[in-house]
Amino acid sequence: MSRWFILAGIVLIVIGLILHYAPGLLNWFGKLPGDLRFESERTRVYFPIVSMIIISIILTVLINLFGRH
Q1: Would 32 disulfide with which of 1, 48, 50, 53, CB 3.0-4.6 Å?
Q2: Which residue, 39, 35, 16, 37, is CA-closest to 26?
Q3: Beta strand residue intervals within the chain, DSSP E
Q4: Would the pTM count as exceeding 0.70?
Q5: In sequence order, what are the residues at sequence separation of 6 or more whose Cβ sits closer than 8 angstroms to the Cβ of residue 26?
Q6: In this structure, what DSSP letter does residue 23 have?
């Protein structure tokens, strides 16, 4: 269990460094076709459906690859 926390921490640090030093690398994320955005005068609603599906698929593949003993 502690191995997963360490791995998650390293991944978060790497993502944080990428966002800090190269923010343009992830500009595409959250603006994919299928991500729904509704705007009116005073309200904004955003549903990143496709982006979350992609994250789910990637995490499922990684967990299945590295989670097997």
Answers
A1: 50
A2: 16
A3: 36-39, 44-47
A4: no
A5: 18, 19
A6: G
Phi-psi map region of 41: left, alpha, beta (phi>0 left; psi -120 to 50 alpha): alpha
| Segment 13-33, tens digit of pLDDT | 998 998 899 888 877 777 888
> How do 36-39 and 44-47 pair as beta strands?
antiparallel
In this predicted structure, what is the pLDDT of residue 57?
Answer: 95
> Are 14 and 6 a contacting pair, CB within 8 Å?
no
Q: Where are the chain's structural domains? A: 1-30, 31-69
C-alpha–C-alpha distance, residues 18 and 35, integer Å: 23
